[in-house]
């Protein structure tokens, strides 16, 4: 978008706040004005809309210094910057936020600002619902002069750029003291009417509205205080912060659902295992002579084929119902089993240690089937007999 909202904050919350909406594409001012204090910043929400917001802060609140490193500037040597700056400033360097503006070999230009002041400015913007991706000192938004200083007056203050990476903000009284301290008169190119003081060579520059001049300079300036811990969040990060709790809860719910599903699958697996064990037990009861059971279904089909049955469901039902009875008389063993589908009869040839076992089986089976006893004989210490079972229904 070619339109931008440029805001200049004050040193304290009670100072006026100048703002301007500039269209770089149309080269025209869309709107401009001055707020009485930072308390009114929320009135600029509508002006911001979808436009980028660039924020200027007073250069008087920053420290501009050039330091010399022992070697060339790199990531490792950058860690020494606060200690080198400690000898050049009166502030506690641990409380300063440092930004490197430029470096050439061992020479490094830095700007520094108190972290409390950064938090204060960003707090005003956050309270007003304004988001910015660039915050820079106003003195660096003013175009530098080739052989002197450049200056403009904004309200009761003078903004002066003293070099590529140097500048001050002062009222007329302080400006007079600064100029009087110079060894020789400084040439100052001013974009606004010169003040009535003779301690400098004031040269008129192209007249321009102060905020428009600063806006144009800010939009082309690469300096930015929003680095390190103040680096603005990306849209992704901002949305992630908003939806993080929802995502975490959804993840927990998913884990719970997966855990429940896992428990269900485990229970089904255990039920399947128990059912297979029960089927094997029933098969063993019906065919106690078989000790090697590999595939119950296949082995049962082989037995049914030997019985010559075309309807397997009937004999399976009879065998299933007979299994509990066989289980109660473990001494009784099946030797031959035949099923007559036409008569719906199951013919069993059994052996047992005594006549009592066969009689016990006949009584128990008689509760469910009509039992007809065939020939019973004793041989080699066992009793053999034939039983015919028929469904009572």
TrEMBL record:
Gene coding for it: gspL
Record InterPro entries: ATPase_NBD, GspL_cyto_dom, GspL_pp_dom, T2SS_protein-GspL
Biological processes, Gene Ontology terms: protein secretion by the type II secretion system
Signal peptide (residue range): none
Function summary: Inner membrane component of the type II secretion system required for the energy-dependent secretion of extracellular factors such as proteases and toxins from the periplasm.
Protein name: Type II secretion system protein L
Domain of life: Bacteria
Compartments in which it is found: Cell inner membrane
Membrane topology: Single-pass membrane protein
Organism for this UniProt entry: Aeromonas cavernicola
A GO cellular component annotation in the UniProt record: Gram-negative-bacterium-type cell wall
Record carries keyword DNA damage: no
Residues in GspL periplasmic domain copies: 237-391
Keyword annotations from UniProtKB, A to Z: Cell inner membrane, Cell membrane, Membrane, Protein transport, Transmembrane, Transmembrane helix, Transport
